[in-house]
Amino acid sequence: MPKLTIDGIPVEAPEGATVLQAAELAGIEIPRFCYHERLSIAGNCRMCLVEVKPGPPKPAASCALPVCEGMEVFTNSEMARAARKGTIEFMLVNHPLDCPICDQGGECDLQDETVLYGEAASRFREDKHAFADKDLGPLINTRFTRCIHCTRCVRFCDEIAGVPALGMIGRGSSCEIMPWEEGVLQTELAGNLVDVCPVGSLTNRPFAFRARSWELTKTDSIDIMDAMGSSVRIDSRSNEVLRILPRLNDAVNEEWIGDRSRHFIDGLLERRLDTPWARVTRGAALRSVSWEKALEILRERVEALGDAPKVGVIAGDQTDLETLTAAKDLCAALGSPNMDCRQDGARLDASVRAGYLFNATIEGLDQADAILLIGSDPRKEAPVLNARIFRRVRNGQAAVARIGVPTDLTYPVTELGNTPGEALAALRAGTHPFAEVLRSAKHPVIIVGQGALRREDGAAVLNAARDLADALGVVREGWNGFSVLHTAAGRVGGLDLGFVPGKDGLDAGAMVQALGSGSLDVLILLGADEFDTSALANRSTRDALVVYIGSHGDAGAAVADIVLPGSAWTEKTATWVSMEGRVQRTLRAVSAPGAAVEDWVAVARVARALGHALPFSSVEDVRARMAAINPLLGTLWTLTPAPWGAPFGTEGAVSAEPFTPAVPNYYMTCPISRASRTMAACVEALSGTEDERTGTDG
């Protein structure tokens, strides 16, 4: 490795590293605008100029200069300081003097570097060159007069998002960034453009002018709008969440998050359940009541059903482990085996952990050289994960094939058709060329999506995928490429906890049908809305009781007899398990509104009303019980690989019925995002039609 000195400090840098990267190894910061660690080198801004010896007597751009043996670098010499002052001066020639009203104020790299390296006054008196703002959709404000032509946004679209939506046109002082098409950017990662922009040229439209950065309370947390468990920061003020930003986590989301995870936040205040609701008499409309009255009605209705009512519990996609633990103990106290965390009917076996984890891990995709997608659309199900796959394909390091609906994943895909049984059989027999691609790969990956599992033959598909993994060597010593891509943040935790039907118990679909036909007496919905609720709305007997515990008035609340207000995930400190099997915890950023409580508390109150007080006096008691059920759930931030071991799934024929998308609408997948006006604006911008109203709205 080349050895050099930077400001007199000896540094040994990897072969091919640049001077700027070597300086970072030495703990020396060199200012920059166009350089970004995850983007290609452009060398546009010239802010990173340094003096280098030996070499010509002029400053050199450190971001594009490879290190050499014996090189001497001076980052703070008179030549370097003068060069930076000149660079800043030229950047400010056409930059508007709108810092006091710029919504990037306080977080602007140009503002900071000008204070450190700029002059107090400009020598230029000419008129400034202005540019028209462009329409990039409902998520991004544009002020291209502020643009310094660093091209970070262009490179992000090309190299990370995989959607070449922006480019630079013109020459000299007429250069400007332009979208190739006016309107919303066709990517689920558009919000990250605001993060990479070093000036106020691209800003967060929903957040614009609502608060200054120094006014915000910042809370480190975990995103649960998909199953990746991305690291995020929640910015709030006066008990209102105003912004969500990604946090650096190379093992999961690097420094990106999807647009839904970033911009759903206005939905936290819409359609909120902040007080209990109940049908005081059978068949009556829901009306607002106190907690005491709601629990009294619950007790009376259940007592009217007889001595041993049949009870079932369905957990929603965003149900935390504390709530699932309390609900599991409630079912045990009632003697009910009817519980399920798979409201969409996914045929996942909770007894074999390797059968439902993303075993390759998200970071492991950086090694993948052959990927088979089975009933999965990672672009809509996990856009940040899809960006990792795109990077491998773009660099020529991986080949991707798909069994499923042909959609644009931003990278080339070998289509194996959407006849699952036939395609899987051809790969198993080795008659399709991609079978050899998987077999010869060093790190092959099979990704099974929820579109393949939430069918009648879902267990057979899972079994066929496992057989394929064994036959083609996808699982081998030191590598397990068999991965299930989840869309629900609470799913893996529910399976780890064993929140599935017990002996002779009913699954989610059977519980809905049983209550609709009158063979189940009480159904408790824990934020469960992602299923067809018509059977509950049209149930044959009104004696059957539906209790909904959740934060938003959506489809489940609309058919319930008793609605108890819970907390959204930003309003509680709760535990979740990512699709990799990583146990993580969100931190409360704001308080729940009105009479809403944490969901496990609501479950405990229901249990007490039914005469079965749970032995929990605090959340620590719940977590101790959770760890007693499964010790893995008591260890935070640890990724424990699952042994391949026992078979999972069910033998049987895979039907020829085509796979259907698990996430048909990326922007609206849960009660919170369906309540968001920003998400509705995204849907309208992309489709030209307004979303259909759901839940309790008129």
UniProtKB/TrEMBL annotation:
Residues 2-79 form the 2Fe-2S ferredoxin-type domain. Residues 79-118 form the 4Fe-4S His(Cys)3-ligated-type domain. Its cofactor is [2Fe-2S] cluster; [4Fe-4S] cluster. It catalyses: a quinone + NADH + 5 H(+)(in) = a quinol + NAD(+) + 4 H(+)(out). Its EC number is 7.1.1.-. CDD domains: fer2 (cd00207). Keywords: 2Fe-2S, 4Fe-4S, Iron, Iron-sulfur, Metal-binding, NAD, Oxidoreductase, Quinone, Translocase. GO terms for molecular function: 2 iron, 2 sulfur cluster binding; 4 iron, 4 sulfur cluster binding; metal ion binding; NADH dehydrogenase (ubiquinone) activity; oxidoreductase activity, acting on NAD(P)H; quinone binding. The keyword NAD applies. GO terms for biological process: ATP synthesis coupled electron transport. GO terms for cellular component: membrane. Belongs to the complex I 75 kDa subunit family. PANTHER family: NADH-UBIQUINONE OXIDOREDUCTASE 75 KDA SUBUNIT, MITOCHONDRIAL (PTHR43105:SF13), RESPIRATORY NITRATE REDUCTASE (PTHR43105). This is NADH-quinone oxidoreductase. It comes from Phaeovibrio sulfidiphilus.
